[in-house]
Amino acid sequence: MPKNIKHSWAEPYKMKMVELLKMTTPAQRKRALQEAGYNTFLLRSEDVYIDLLTDSGTSAMSDRQWAGMMLGDEAYAGSRNFYNLEKTVKEVYGYKYLVPTHQGRGAENILSKILIKKGDIIPGNMYFTTTRLHQELSGGKFEDIIIDEAHDPDNEFPFKGNVDLNKLEKLIKKYGAKKIPYVSIATSVNMAGGQPISMKNLKELRALTKKHGIRIIHDMTRVAENAYFIQQKEKGYESKPVKEIVKEICSLTDGATMSAKKDALVNIGGFLAVNDWDVFEEARNLVVVYEGLHTYGGLAGRDMEAMAIGIHESISDDHIRARVGQVIYLGNQMMNYGVPIVHPIGGHGIFVDAKKFLPHIPQDHFPAQTLAAEVYQDSGVRTMERGIVSAGRKPNGENYHPKLELARFTIPRRVYTQAHMDVIAESAARVYERRKQIKGLKMVYEPRYLRFFQARFEKLK
Ligand SMILES: *Cc1c(COP(=O)(O)O)cnc(C)c1O
């Protein structure tokens, strides 16, 4: 018997329905890019071959989730799907009280309004666009307390989502614990490249915040992916199912905002979940103003049913191994071609280091935005910018200049095949080969909020 035959993973599902894709020519893509102002967010999805813009709301639902859609109870109040979702959130994540919202930012809006007062400081393990904006709109100021390693795309530290406790202690000393309503902790830090936080770090953070009476609010958008990395990389968790690790993570925090469009395998939905009755009561008051009644929060009954089923599917070891396995496969292919990517490979996508890819383009000429446009031109693969455009401006009007200037190749869950991954890696490699001829962009239209969604650019000559 040959000994070194490897044991490959494969998808724990098979296809029952397919969606046909349009193939485009280079000339069609050139025109589409011009019309979109070189912003991949402004491309028509029809003109995209493989869509890696985001993993948000782009996952394939299972036959069970689709069956659940047919069980939608569309009563205005007290839908049975709400009670099923409430039971699922309690059972799987352990939070006591649930307020559904139309998506993650709906929960962020309500939570920020309740907990943040003008002049408050909100420390967090790297910012997220909508999260920080809601904190600022409520009068708070975000302070990044992620470890320095997270800002270095080459550092191989396995838990680059960790909090630097010294940075937090300094903030507590400087402002006092009363000015810090909560620490904002993301599991699998999106903006750092899908990097996980370790259980050890989270436990230490819990001990420190407990001492000062500070809450931890958990951005649990990618908690299952974080739990998988803990299982794979943290001592003592090798044989624990992802499901148990997820619950342990949640137990170390006081409440959570969730964009169910990511880990929870639905096309729309989110929630706020808290353990504190007072916060819950206030959230129920606010949800009717901004989202809808507290038993639907802007969702249809069928959406809540699909979410409840998706939550259960998302924490299965087989699912998450294949999900992250596909991302790692793509990352390895890119590395084989010499394309510079963020290390270690994260959970939801490959983040290409645009500063290294296009070192001749200064950050103010938008290297990552340029890279995303070039990859689309090459193959019809749509990626997006996570760099200076996404970082936006400070309250005083100056541009943030983030250390990381990345093009994100985000993989939707259960949607594409390994052959698609090969096509993507080859396209990135082709653009890399002609990188020296690539010039940057200039911004010709800038919206006031979250500019990366709608900004327009022109090619520099
Ligand atoms: C997507 C996302 C959000 C916001 O959720 P939406 O559903 O897009 O409103 C918040 N935090 C993180 C980490 C996210 O990835």
Detailed description of the structure:
The chain has 16 helices and 14 strands. The protein is an alpha/beta fold and 461 residues long. It has two domains: 173 residues, Aspartate Aminotransferase, domain 1, CATH 3.90.1150; 252 residues, 3-Layer(aba) Sandwich (Aspartate Aminotransferase, domain 2). It is globular, with a radius of gyration of 22 Å.
Q: What is the string of SSEs from the N terminus onward?
A: HEHHEHEHEHEHEHHEEHHHEHHEEHEHEE
Q: What is the overall number of helices? A: 16
CATH C-level of the largest domain: Alpha Beta
Overall tally of structural domains: 2
N- to C-terminal distance: 61 Å
Q: List unreliable stretches of 5+ residues.
A: none
- Which strands sit side by side, in order, in the main sheet? 2-8-7-6-5
Ligands: pyridoxal-5'-phosphate
Largest sheet: 5 strands, mixed
Helix content: 25-40%
> Any guess at the CATH architecture of the largest domain?
3-Layer(aba) Sandwich
Strand segment count: 14
The average pLDDT score comes to 96
Assembly status: single chain
Approximately how much beta-strand content do the residues carry? 5-15%
Radius of gyration: 22 Å
The 3D shape can be described as globular
CATH superfamily of the largest domain: Type I PLP-dependent aspartate aminotransferase-like (Major domain)
Q: Structural class of the secondary structure composition?
A: alpha/beta
Which fold name fills CATH's third level, the topology of the largest domain?
Answer: Aspartate Aminotransferase, domain 2
